[in-house]
Design a protein that fits this description.
The structure holds two protein chains of two kinds. Chain A has no helices and twelve strands. Helix content of chain A is about 0%, strand content about 50%. Classes of the chains: A mainly beta, B mainly beta.
């Protein structure tokens, strides 16, 4: 079956540091890939997505590239802010299946 | 533009009681999903509907759980009888088939069963 593996958290960074959160996946088909963000007490918000190999999703300074050869979709940001503190979820939607399969989430804490 | 609306936001009930969670999807969306989030198991799909029809309910834990979507603007998730292990945050999400696979989540219902 499908699965998503994310790096364990929490990740603690100082403001303006570079962020990488690793995500790898297994899928039976050709999935679409997503990053969602969850702020405390809120639902998940779509951060970015990519639907085919070598696509780069980007939003609010975050980027992730769909790497089919390494089955990865790592999240990056060049300079994090305190307001980026949240839990980040990598997810996939496999061919013919609309539901999302989520990773376990990575908590990011950014200190001023 | 209103997002996905869920009610109640918080529910505290005693073991054995019936619990009903409600969801209003984004207008025009034709797919609706119910997820459960716990510390131990993370985010799990319970069931999803397409055009009001249940498509995949393989994630529904057991017969105590049931979900309905009587029309395009309303869905319920019912637990009867509730048990302490049902304590979790329950999310509803909706999506528009033609726009791809991204889903829009509601704020969630935090359920506590004592």
């Amino acid at each position: 079956g499908d699965s998503v593996t994310q790096m364990e958290g929490p990740v603690t960074l100082s403001e303006e540091a570079f962020l990488t959160i690793n995500c790898t996946y297994t899928a039976t088909g050709y999935p679409s890939l997503f990053w969602y963000v969850q702020y405390p007490g809120e639902g998940l918000q779509l951060l970015l997505k990519a639907t085919k190999a070598d696509d780069k999703g980007s939003n609010k300074g975050f980027e992730a590239t769909y790497r089919k050869e390494t089955t990865s979709f790592h999240l990056e940001k060049g300079s994090v802010q305190v307001s980026d503190s949240a839990v980040y979820f990598c997810a996939l939607s496999d061919t013919g299946r609309r539901a999302l399969t989520f990773g376990s989430g990575t908590r990011l804490q950014v200190q001023p | 533009d209103a997002g996905v609306i869920q009610s109640p936001r918080h529910e505290v009930t005693e073991m054995g009681q019936e619990v009903t969670l409600r969801c209003k999807p984004i207008s025009g969306h034709n797919s609706l999903f119910w997820y459960r989030q716990t510390m131990m198991r993370g985010l799990e799909l319970l069931i999803y509907f397409n055009n009001n029809v249940p498509i995949d309910d393989s994630g529904m834990p057991e017969d105590r759980f049931s979900a309905k979507m009587p029309n395009a603007s309303f869905s319920t998730l019912k637990i009867q009888p509730s048990e302490p292990r049902d304590s979790a945050v329950y999310f509803c999400a909706s999506s528009l088939t033609a726009a791809g696979y991204e889903q829009y989540f509601g704020p969630g219902t935090r359920l506590t069963v004592t």
